[in-house]
């Protein structure tokens, strides 16, 4: 079994390689690992010089993790509606982050203070639901 830190490196390489191929770069042989075939949800965030350059992800696992990371990397680089598609000239300056999401769990609290007491910064994400949104 691959250590968690090695898995993180693998996911970053996978995301970056997918973008590189789309831009016309040649990359090493495809990354393969059995755990990439398991269902998973991810967000891929691109920054350039510390500024957001693209961010796309999925909230729930509905496809293999490897596919999810690849597709979200391409979407963040080329289909984030807030930005122009990533240009080849930008690629070397882009930092790629991959965040893995676990299954959502309801958080039942009585107040904002209660929520702040149980949420862990930089670990927990929050999905707000309001009506049909």
**Low-pLDDT residue intervals, each spanning 5 or more residues:** none
| Shape, per Cα inertia axes | globular
User: Oligomerization state of this entry?
Assistant: single chain
Q: Given the structure, what is the number of helices?
A: 3
Strand proportion, as a percent range, falls in: 15-25%
Topology of helices and strands:
Layout: H1 4-22, E1 41-48, E2 51-57, H2 65-78, E3 94-101, H3 112-118
Antiparallel strand pairs: 1-2, 1-3
Helix pairs in contact: 1-2
What tags apply to this protein structure?
single chain, 133 residues, alpha+beta, Glycoprotein, Type 4 Pilin, 3-stranded antiparallel sheet, 3 helices, 30% helix
Quick synopsis:
By secondary structure, the protein is an alpha+beta fold.
How does this structure look, described?
With 133 residues, the protein is α+β, with helices and mostly antiparallel strands. It has a single domain (4-103), classed as Hypothetical protein ph0010, domain 1 (Glycoprotein, Type 4 Pilin), CATH 3.30.700.20. It is 30% helix and 17% strand. It is built from three helices and three strands; from the N terminus they run H-E-E-H-E-H. The chain has helices at residues 4-22, 65-78, 112-118, and strands at residues 41-48, 51-57, 94-101. It has a three-stranded antiparallel beta sheet with strand order 2-1-3. Strand 1 (41-48) and strand 2 (51-57) form a beta hairpin. Helix 1 packs across helix 2. The chain is globular, with a radius of gyration of 17 Å.
């Amino acid at each position: 079994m691959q250590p968690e830190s090695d898995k993180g490196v693998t996911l970053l390489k996978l995301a970056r390689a997918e973008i590189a191929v789309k831009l016309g770069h040649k990359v090493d042989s495809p990354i393969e690992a059995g755990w990439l075939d398991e269902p998973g949800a991810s967000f891929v965030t691109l920054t350039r010089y510390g500024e957001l350059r693209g961010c796309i992800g999925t909230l729930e696992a509905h496809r293999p993790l490897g596919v999810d990371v690849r597709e979200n990397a391409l979407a963040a680089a080329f289909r984030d509606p807030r930005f122009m598609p990533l240009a080849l000239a930008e690629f070397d300056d882009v930092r790629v982050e991959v965040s893995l999401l676990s299954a959502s769990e309801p958080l039942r609290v009585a107040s904002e203070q209660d929520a702040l007491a149980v949420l862990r910064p930089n670990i927990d994400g929050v999905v707000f639901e309001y009506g049909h949104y």
